[in-house]
Amino acid sequence: MRYISTRGDAPILGFEDTMLTGLARDGGLYVPEDLPTLSRGDIAALAGLPYEEVAVRVMAPFVRDAFDEATFAGLVERAYAGFGHDARAPLKQLAPNHFLLELFHGPTLAFKDFAMQLIGQMFEHTLTKRGERVTIVGATSGDTGSAAMEAFRGLDAVDVFILYPHGRVSEVQRRQMTTPAEANVHALAIDGHFDDAQARVKDMFNHFDFRDRVRLAGVNSINFARVLAQVVYYFSAATALGAPHREVSFTVPTGNFGDIFAGHIAKRMGLPIRQLVVATNQNDILHRCLTTGEYRPGTVEPSISPSMDIQVSSNFERALHLAYGGDGRAIAQLMAELKEGGFTVSQGALQALQEVYASGRATEAETTAAIGSYLKRSGELLCPHTAVGTHVAEAHLGDVPMVTLATAHPAKFPDAVEAATGVRPALPPRMADLFDRDERITRVENDLAAVEAVIDARI
Ligand SMILES: *Cc1c(COP(=O)(O)O)cnc(C)c1O
Q1: Fewest CB within 10 angstroms: 29, 68, 255, 352, which?
Q2: Residue 128, domain member (yes or no)
């Protein structure tokens, strides 16, 4: 399979190089040139299979030129072996026709583990085979960074540097990033917001001297391999609820648009998804854009769902690329306008987006109320991100099953959950000693040269 840039002006790559490269050299994001489809029979056959088997069948057409099937099955097996639940992504029922897809049973208790654990295995396999070494840089609003460090710590072929906004991640998130002792993983606390961290990472990729010298690689959700790994649980959940014989809808707590875009790919591959509902917190640029067509970033308002505190949502570019019928020049134009303050989606493209996506937002008070009410109504403790999802999902319940993605374990955000319910959620026993481990904190200015200097000094 060939991968092209959303902006149409970067080398066309195979899967291996797409995965190792991250951001395309024209500033765009890699996407498959054509999406494969699964037949109704192929989809029906997924029902009831182990998660790993579903993963191999769904991802095989995308990775075939990089891994033979037995090798890939081995990587998938190892990726999910450390999860704390045999089903990997279990479904629970919350209310009539409303289900919760629990994506927090991985080693760092958030859905990011699904992609990151697999990427760790794929990077190690590919780099070892090629005899190469890379420097991975990433920005995190909290969960990506810990998932990346967990997936890559101790590997030989990779150094990892994660930029997180100083003072704006939860203590559990920070400790998951600052306590790994392995010498190849580094957490850098940048002065600023997530968008600043993400901008500095993009700057490094656009600074070609540095990029080539340290062999920069990215594992942010701009990396197509991440999105791909997330396509799998849409198939496992929908087939458990009757697909392909019946439609299913999904509500996804959304920040950088990676998780929900994976649902869009699943739909294009033939999974009968009726609606993909984008759930935002008070940082609602995506909800506004999907409603009005105006994409104009404001300032980030910190919330109790920090992993969604985003104004520039990278993967939205991929959805725009589909909505504009693959017109790279149009996407490059929109992104140039974004640099000047914002853009307006064309009428036709907005209509195309609205055929796939619905949207809604939850205020801080609504999020807190949802955490309290679901504990009373169904006995489930929700993390604040998930609660944004269930709040928005309620406005979209109908005659097909609605699945809200539970993106993190409540114990990752204990203060918000306790404030809403009076119950302080406990960490699973396998990570109960997190608060006793030693931290290593490195502060860095919100400045490209300063960040590059730290990386140069450490590798
Ligand atoms: C990353 C994250 C999100 C947002 O996911 P995107 O793919 O960036 O849209 C939502 N909830 C949690 C808990 C997360 O870690």
Answers
A1: 68
A2: no
Any bridge partners for residue 357, and if so which?
A: 276
Domain assignment present for residue 381? The answer is yes
For residue 243, the domain's CATH number is 3.40.50.1100
Among candidate residues 243, 289, 287, the one with its CA nearest the CA of residue 269: 243
Q: Return the residue whose CA atom lies nearest to atom 2 of ligand 1.
A: 307
Q: Is the pTM of this model over 0.90?
A: yes
Q: Whose CA is nearest to atom 8 of ligand 1?
A: 256
Note down the domain range covering 278. 91-108+224-421
In this structure, the residue with its CA closest to atom 15 of ligand 1 is: 143
Provide the 8-state DSSP code for 103: -
Confirm whether 412 is a catalytic residue. Answer: no
**Ligand 1 centre from 169 Cα, in Å?**
13
Contacting residues for 228 by C-beta, under 8 A, at least 6 apart: 59, 62, 63, 115, 262, 265
- Ligand 1: centre distance to CA 128 (Å): 30
Concatenate the DSSP letters of all residues of 366-397 into one string.
Answer: HHHHHHHHHHHHHS----HHHHHHHHHHHTT-
- Beta-strand ranges (E) seen in 184-256 are 185-190, 216-218, 248-253
Q: Which two tokens stand for residue 62?
A: 């995308």
The pLDDT tens digits for 281-291 are 999 999 999 99
300 falls within a domain: yes
For 326: left if phi > 0, alpha if psi spans -120 to 50, otherwise beta; the answer is: left
CB contact at 8 A, 420 and 122: no
Identify which of 178, 143, 185, 194 has the alpha carbon closest to the alpha carbon of residue 442.
178
Among residues 112, 202, 267, 412, the one annotated as catalytic is 112
- 18: confidence class by pLDDT, cuts 50, 70, 90: very high
Residue with the two structure tokens 């049973």: 105
**132-178 tens-digit pLDDT:** 999 999 999 878 899 999 999 998 899 999 999 999 888 888 999 99
Strands 343-344 and 98-102: unpaired
